[in-house]
Amino acid sequence: MTFQMIRRRMYEKLSLNSYLNVCVDVGQINRAFNTLLKLSSYRKNQLVDVNHYNIVLKGWAKLASIAQVVETRMHMIRNSIEPNAESYAYILLAYAKGPDNRRSTIKRIYQDLKTRNIDPETLFHHAYINPADRRSIINLLKQVDPKYQDRFCPEPINYDCKLLKDFDKTPYVPYDFSGIKDLKKLESWADNQRFVENKSSITIKSVANVKDSPQQLERYAKLWQKLTELWKKSLHDALDESLTALQKQSEDSTKIHLYPYLCSIDRNMLIHLMLDEIETNASFASYSMSTNQLHKNFGHKIMTRYLRAKSQEDGSYQEKQNIYAEYLREYCTNPDLVSRVTPRQFMQMKAVETNNYSIYKEKLTLVEEWPHHIVVAVGRFLYGVLLREIKFDPDTVRNPKRDINMKNLVHAFYTAYFQIDSTHKIKEEFRAHQDFERLQLKSSSVRLKFDYSYLPCSSPPLPWLSHRFGGYLTNKSELVRVSNPFAEQAHVALQKNDNQKLYPSLDSLNAIGICPWIVNKDILDLVIQLFQSGGDTELNVPLDETKMNDKVPIMKENPSKADKILFNKEKKRYDQRRREMYSLWRDCLYRLSIANHFRDRIFWFPHNMDFRGRTYPIPPHFNHLGADLARALLLFAKGRPLGPKGLDWLKIHVINLVGSMKSKSLKERLDYANSILHLEVLDSADNPWDGRRWWTNNENPWQVLACCKEIARAIRSGDPKQYVSHFPVHQDGSCNGLQHYAALGRDPGGAMAVNLVPCDKPQDVYSRVVEIVEGMRKQDAEKGLKVALMLEGFIQRKVIKQTVMTTVYGVTRYGARQQIARQLTAKGFSDHDIWSAAQYLTSKTFDSIGRMFNKSRTIQDWLNECAYIIASKCRQPVSWETPLGFLVTQPYTLPSLTSTNRLLSSTVGGDALVSNDPLARLNAPKQKTAFPPNYIHSLDSSHMMLTSLYCQRRGITFVSVHDCYWTHPSTVDEMNEICRQQFIALHSEPLLQDLSEQFIERFGEHFEQKEAVVVKKAAAASGSACTNMATKPLIEMYDSSRQTEQGRTRAKFLDVPTTGDLNLNLVQKSTYFFS
């Protein structure tokens, strides 16, 4: 089957699965049953399977409808659907809950189980049933077998990974990750987190300046409240009318319809969520996301609430919270246990002790999440209601003392269309009326409302145990961030994949996620002060859009056609600039307001991954992955004494942040820090605004200031060695992507350039490239080449840095030329010759990198060729397992050229299918060009994960920003040792050979010849292929061609690039590998 055929079938099954589940859950089980019967009636239908019948059986069992259970079973027999263990679990549940539980009937079912080789004692390994219903079934079975008992069969808890085979034998150090001993405090924080998640949103105080008087703000707040009451009634009536129409439309339809999905959550909760959307969208006015993104986000909110209500109803919610309470009580307050076992291992062991099946519910059930085209369709429908029904009186905004005039109401929202920059694509945006935005701003100027997932956790996150269990406490979180429309395939792939292979990745997410944080209040107060006074772009605090310096374009009187064109260009540029300023200002407002909300609290960041295995905090606005300002606002909640070298590391760290001594040794950086300690560092700490302001003149001003203040506190503590520091110190990889390439190719020259081998001073690959390129330019200048002469003095580190950095990530020559052109423009190079100069420099930069990293270039070419074969010849997405076992599948597709599927009604069509095309084709060029950088990213994530696991084992606080590792000043040396050990261990594995074997196993036989398929179909239509003399030679020819192509494919996969003679063990002694 082709990639598109596989996706079509998977998409149909997931769509039907979600539809049947929702129908059963909202009490429309007859609709589900009739849909199933209709689809099963097609003779050649291979869509319906036993899993779909089990959904209906479960629904009848909950209702104790034995007659319907029997009828469903008869239909299964009629359609040759064999029951499995899950089927029998629900059949027995129906009898356990119903009046007819005669011993003879149960005995017959029990014997039928054994006849089909289904072990009754492992019945609950195949279907999640809550504890009360499990006891009922157990009592029922004991009627026919008094010795019967449920045998809990847990998953293995240890790793199945070569890199971690000796992990449990590694000595461990007790790890008090939070310093919190008060269990009641932890439990109270967990209760607060559950409250926030159940409420769905939280309102916090805004740090923005309030310009109106309290009396005026109160009038606007009352006006908003009045309108809210009107909107509630309007939305209630509109939803009643719309859902009634949808219900009638869906009554005689056996296709997947939107109606059950819209009934999946309580009506009052639905209206509450819609009111939240009104407030959110009103705050942006002219600065909205695309409508499709809004539809997807809102549909996802509806689905999340549905899944939470479903878990509360089936009992898994309470079981999950019970085991989380054990986790807080026994694990989080036990430093010895934290280092000895991972959070996942503890939860799995505790589940065995308590027979808690909830942690395996996600494994026992099909994917419950709705397909993305359904999610978007739900959001689209509800946004349509908002667009029609939400109205306001503009006159009351101008004068809030006036009463609302119902005849004067206008729509609060509208849609607008914009051309996406540098493309011919049109984007539709959801916009708010400017007066409506003003009303929202005035009514809520002192508060901001956020969805729970936008904020950090108030208690330790729920440990990740599988791809569908972990993250937030009550609501489901996504383990893997996958863009539409590929999410369904990722979910299915993870479901099929052995969960044990995920253990290293899950444990790493848990190790990073259990690190608690606090806000650096000193820095927060300074930033809020600057933000409220108008901002400062030089200090990365954005200006309010009202302080925009650009002049508003003005149309000339009696303009010519050229004048109009010029005005439109200037107006577009001006509007874009305003949008960018407002976006930056709003982002900063959110970050500072959230930080201020948590200023006196401890909090945690739950993490997940992208499709390559790179880790990210889930809350988007306030986390340590942000830029300078975001990082400066954060401190570790658990402090450690600085010890003998901690103060030195703080001093080195402040110089690293300044960024002016990257080519100097650590000793030189420390000496320089000591030389400016009193003049600059302590002056900055004591007088940030009125002193010499040294901290402002560098790359990372706020982090520098935060570090200056920490150094000052440590020195003035009296005994710096005993000073308890909460400050994180960073260690950055030296052009980490090229480090992995050099290690893969065992390339001595490349390894020297990126500090894989010991050196007295750090090597700067960018400066080395500049030297080579400048040498080439001088030679060309001597020959009289004009462009070489013009570039004299312009070939600098900053000009080529981005290109060198992104070469490893697959930047094209066109992209590199744009990067270099931007830098040359910033340096004042002539606009007339900018493109020829950029093209010249791009060529020379690529040539110099090829000289320095010849092995890396060979490896990159081989990866590209393999990806081309997989995507273009085998017509499959490029996929591989990382060294830790995480399955990576590249999600690059194009919209399909075929029509939508027969299963869907028109209510789930439209833009839901255009933008989230479940039948999308592979984007073969993107699959090819993206593979080398994605493979390298999967290696750097594996290295980070290994480091995080061993740091937890050694009792070291560790978090990361990809290839930037954070820890306490006192544990930098230990972390550096672990970091190097794990890099050596990772690259000591035959990574390229393993990748080659994976490709041969996955794609070596998966070769598609369209012509052969066509000929065989023609032969089948006209008679036997063996007797049809006209088609037999063609079939043989194409089969021979197919075998030849398969041989070439296998040969290319086996043609692993040769490597050099680099001694990887030298990395252990390289001071500047990470520094």
TrEMBL record:
<keyword id="KW-0240">DNA-directed RNA polymerase</keyword>
<dbReference type="InterPro" id="IPR043502">
    <property type="entry name" value="DNA/RNA_pol_sf"/>
</dbReference>
<dbReference type="Pfam" id="PF14700">
    <property type="entry name" value="RPOL_N"/>
</dbReference>
<dbReference type="InterPro" id="IPR002092">
    <property type="entry name" value="DNA-dir_Rpol_phage-type"/>
</dbReference>
<keyword id="KW-0809">Transit peptide</keyword>
<dbReference type="InterPro" id="IPR046950">
    <property type="entry name" value="DNA-dir_Rpol_C_phage-type"/>
</dbReference>
<dbReference type="GO" id="GO:0034245">
    <property type="term" value="C:mitochondrial DNA-directed RNA polymerase complex"/>
</dbReference>
<keyword id="KW-0548">Nucleotidyltransferase</keyword>
<dbReference type="GO" id="GO:0006390">
    <property type="term" value="P:mitochondrial transcription"/>
</dbReference>
<keyword id="KW-0808">Transferase</keyword>
<dbReference type="InterPro" id="IPR029262">
    <property type="entry name" value="RPOL_N"/>
</dbReference>
<dbReference type="InterPro" id="IPR011990">
    <property type="entry name" value="TPR-like_helical_dom_sf"/>
</dbReference>
<keyword id="KW-0804">Transcription</keyword>
<dbReference type="GO" id="GO:0071897">
    <property type="term" value="P:DNA biosynthetic process"/>
</dbReference>
<dbReference type="GO" id="GO:0001018">
    <property type="term" value="F:mitochondrial promoter sequence-specific DNA binding"/>
</dbReference>
<feature type="domain" description="DNA-directed RNA polymerase N-terminal">
    <location>
        <begin position="191"/>
        <end position="514"/>
    </location>
</feature>
<comment type="function">
    <text>DNA-dependent RNA polymerase catalyzes the transcription of DNA into RNA using the four ribonucleoside triphosphates as substrates.</text>
</comment>
<dbReference type="Pfam" id="PF00940">
    <property type="entry name" value="RNA_pol"/>
</dbReference>
<comment type="similarity">
    <text>Belongs to the phage and mitochondrial RNA polymerase family.</text>
</comment>
<dbReference type="GO" id="GO:0003899">
    <property type="term" value="F:DNA-directed RNA polymerase activity"/>
</dbReference>
<protein>
    <recommendedName>
        <fullName>DNA-directed RNA polymerase</fullName>
        <ecNumber>2.7.7.6</ecNumber>
    </recommendedName>
</protein>
<dbReference type="InterPro" id="IPR037159">
    <property type="entry name" value="RNA_POL_N_sf"/>
</dbReference>
